[in-house]
Design a protein that fits this description.
The protein is mostly beta strands. Strands 1-2-3-4-5-6-7 form a seven-stranded mixed sheet, with no helix packed on it. It starts with 39 loop residues before the first helix and ends with a strand. The mean pLDDT is 90. The chain contains one helix and seven strands, in the order αβββββββ. The protein is globular.
């Protein structure tokens, strides 16, 4: 329900709600609003979403409001198909209506029009596909993760993908 922790330092928001076996409870999304990466305003939003979840209610997300998930929220969907041409990569996520386009070996324009998926440019560094995204639009249901963590218009996302074998890829975001 979140991102992998970095090699050192504070990591991403994690689920405080646990099942009896100690695994994060996906049915109760209660983000750790005490995480030091969160500013006060963001911690309050995450806490509010957690309280709604603990009350057994759902809170609005891009998924349940039929809005584009956008970057990075869409990353919770691990099933993605990548279609590559020499100058573009098209990423199609499980539901099929989440489609993202990455321009290869290009630069971001001087002025980016914000959108749910932002402006994504890609390149290869050895065998790793690196995707750099800026211009991610804030919106009524825009959030970083399943806990409702908000972001600013300055969000900059860098992804790295490596093919492990024909069916699996390793990602680092």
């Amino acid at each position: 329900t979140g991102f992998e922790p970095p090699a050192s330092g504070p990591g991403p928001v994690r689920n405080r709600s646990r099942r009896p076996d100690g695994v994060a409870n996906f049915q109760r999304l209660v983000g750790d609003y005490t995480n030091p990466i969160l500013k006060l305003e963001a911690a309050e939003v995450v806490k509010k979403h957690g309280e709604i979840s603990l009350a057994g209610k759902g809170y609005p997300t891009p998924s349940n409001q039929c809005w584009p998930g956008g970057v990075p929220y869409v990353f919770w969907d691990f099933l993605v198909q990548m279609l590559q041409t020499p100058d573009h990569i098209t990423m199609v996520y499980r539901q099929g209506n989440e489609v993202r386009r990455v321009r290869m070996n290009a630069s971001h324009p001087a002025v980016v029009t914000p959108s749910s998926y932002g402006d994504s440019v890609g390149r290869y560094e050895g065998d790793a596909l690196v995707i750099d995204t800026v211009g991610i639009r804030k919106g009524p249901f825009a959030m970083l993760d399943m806990y409702g963590t908000p972001f600013t218009e300055k969000l900059h996302v860098v992804e790295r993908y490596q093919l492990v074998d024909y069916d699996d890829a390793k990602d680092e975001i």
